Amino acid sequence: MAIVCKSTAEIEKMRHSGHIVRQVLDHVRGLVAPGVSTMDLERAAEKKIKELGAKPAFKGYYDYPCVLCTSVNEEIVHGIPSEKRVLKEGDIVSIDSGVVLDGYYGDSAITVPVGSGLKPELQKLLEVTEASLYRGIEQARIGNSVEDIGAAVQEHVEAAGFSVVREFVGHGIGTRLHEEPQVPNFGSRGHGARLREGMVLAIEPMVNYGKPETRVLGDKWTAVTADGSFSAHFEHCVAVTKDGPVILTQ
Ligand code: MF3
Ligand code: CO
């Protein structure tokens, strides 16, 4: 499947879906606190998506059961919300949300601390992961290569002593949640597909405090770090335009 470039009008539509995802994440982030379950977050997100007139993108995608992915501590991505997973002081939770509006998808993720007792080293993990996302976004320019994005993310993460996940990657996005090309969070500058005007990429670094290896739990979804170290995840959808990278999920 070839990489689909979007017209200005399509990018405008994706800005609307992106804006809805942002509002959902802002709302849910405000609810994160000790004693709240990840299913509480799921219910709040589902209600908000409906209120805003969009449809959830993840629920039913390859039979994924929920509108959010909520990945706590050593969970990297694709954690399934559960009544039994009650957040506690000192945890970190990654919240990943996707919606579709008028045929166009939006996808974004944040990782937030639970309560106020975040350990300084985890504070650093969150800061470095979010900053690495912006390093990657900065490379989403006409004429650059896909791996310029990954290389920028990887350099920033590894300079801080953390590691990037290899088994899960970012992706093109548009009239489908996952389009070409894959957008790894590692790579060599100048390698991979050339970026052209109108491409829209979901850039999503997943950063482990310890080693990069992953495994998937028995629920067939939840990806965790093999060494049990904590992991953070931030994601934005970004359009490649004549004026440089434009973040659609804000
Ligand atoms: N943002 C993630 C991704 O792009 C979550 C979607 S996976 C789903 O892969 F299956 F839960 F939808
Ligand atoms: Co994504």
Characterize the structure shown.
The chain is α+β, with helices and mostly antiparallel strands and 250 residues long. It has one domain (8-247): Creatinase/methionine aminopeptidase superfamily (Creatine Amidinohydrolase). Helix content is 28%, strand content 26%. The protein is built from four helices and 15 strands. The strands form four sheets. Strands 8-7-9-14-15 form a five-stranded antiparallel beta sheet. Strands 1, 2, 4 and 5 form a four-stranded antiparallel beta sheet that branches. Helix 3 (120-138) packs antiparallel against helix 4. It starts with 7 loop residues before the first helix and ends with a strand. The model has no long low-confidence stretch (mean pLDDT 98). Bound molecules: 2-amino-4-trifluoromethylsulfanyl-butyric acid and cobalt (II) ion.
Separation, N- and C-terminal Cα atoms: 28 Å
- Overall SS class: alpha+beta
The percent range for helix content is 25-40%
Please tally the β strands and state the result. Answer: 15
Q: What hetero molecules are in the model?
A: 2-amino-4-trifluoromethylsulfanyl-butyric acid, cobalt (II) ion
CATH H-tier superfamily: Creatinase/methionine aminopeptidase superfamily
Q: What is the helix/strand order?
A: HHEEEEEHHEEEEEEEEEE
The general outline is globular
Task: Tell me the domain tally.
Answer: 1
Strand % is: 25-35%
Stretches where pLDDT is under 50 for at least 5 consecutive residues are none
Oligomer: single chain
CATH topology: Creatine Amidinohydrolase
Biggest beta sheet summary: 5 strands, antiparallel
The number of distinct helices, counting runs of at least 4 residues, comes to: 4
Q: What strand line-up does the widest sheet have? A: 8-7-9-14-15
